[in-house]
Amino acid sequence: MLAALRAPENAHLLEYVTQDPFGAHVFPGDTPDYSPAEFLADLDVQLRDTAPIHLWSYIPTCAYRCRFCQYPVVLVKGDPGKLTQWADWNMREALLWLENVPSLSSAPIGEFNVFGGTPSLLPAADIARLLEFYRSHFNFGPETTVRFEGDPSTFTVEKLELLASLGCTKLSCGVQSFDDPVLKLCGREHTSQMCVDFIRAAQRVGFERISIDLMYGLLDQTVDSVRRDLDVVLDTGVNSVVCTKLHLKSYAETRTGVAGEKPAAWQVDSYRSRLERDGHFWPTLDEQYEMRAVLTEGLRAAGYVEHPTMYFAANGIGPETWKSIMVDQDRQEAEVAIGLGGSSSCRRSEAITDVNWQTYAASVEAGRVPLGSATAFSPSGQETRAVKMALTSLQPLQDSLHRSRFGRSLFDEPWAGRFRSLQDRGFAVLSDDAVTLTPAGETLVEAIINTEF
């Protein structure tokens, strides 16, 4: 893999990965100066006749801020009133979306996610009324699944039992690592044993999908540490794992994710320098790719299926519903994100909710959908976005599906030359009706879609 990156013809891929990018599943528009009102109108048109979509509620509350985090979060430790306030604002914002996008109330919801932040900090009464609000105002059906996110310290047995009783069947948990010294350097306030205890408790309660997040490339993290993380995953039998590379370059600069108002602690040069002077270290690029290989190869060997990239599910339970709704070539439906810093999209445009909590709150209080920015996709941008999303699914790109949607073949220009080049460099295989990434292409798919398309 590193040999491929260092080949002269792949210099642009090496430049991409060494610049610390992140975000294979973020697809910004190519036409700026689009208004939020235009995005809401585009979304309404698409939702008039839609397959199930992904709806998520972003609750930005956290007890503390991790040293790698650059998302918009609000610290609420010791202040339960703030938690209730953010649940209130989220529901009031949702009503504004329903008012401004009339088709949203009838759009079938494939998966509803309560993400954060740490929404599991919410008191039981606020969790119950939040879930009841969304069920009563949106088109949940028998097939709708509900997912809730939290961290190991807040997913108590009592909270797990509450969530199960309220119809949640899926959990997401930010474990990040099972190495206690690494967790401490991240600023995490939980231990590796608490992570294992959470998994065991969630399994006993009977959740259908228990997903944990692991990060690689963390401060003082070694390849052996990541191997131990894999061992714990396999020992616990947790059935879903999301693997993420540490990202230090600003999301705002790369447009690869929603950025907060201030940098993560680890993005501050003086802080990073002090850590290095104290003897701490950041894994090299070679080590990061070895960590990725340890996780990818180990999980696949244990029967996990990767779909989309870096999302692993135990064989038999299928891909993450909310991600497949967004990226699979035969779906690619809308996503509606309600809450501070949410990222929403439809086929014609995309928008990001305000990341400043004060202006966000002022907009909600004034009765305005608090969108901070919007961009559109040109006709060629829509086609490019569809190809990029499909590639991140790691499933073969079907020419027949592309022709039915865009009226031209993947084996005509402007695509033919790009795919032939990927094949010549060992990143893809072309057949009569499909483009399939090779293992090298799958590993480098983030760099490929962001530099070659």
UniProtKB/TrEMBL annotation:
InterPro entries assigned: Coproporphyrinogen-III_oxidase, Elp3/MiaA/NifB-like_rSAM, rSAM, rSAM_horseshoe, rSAM_sf
Alphabetical list of Gene3D superfamilies matching this protein: tm_1862 like domain
Domain Radical SAM core: 48-292
SMART domains: Elp3 (SM00729)
Matching Pfam families: Radical_SAM (PF04055)
Protein name: Heme chaperone HemW
Source species of the chain: Kutzneria chonburiensis
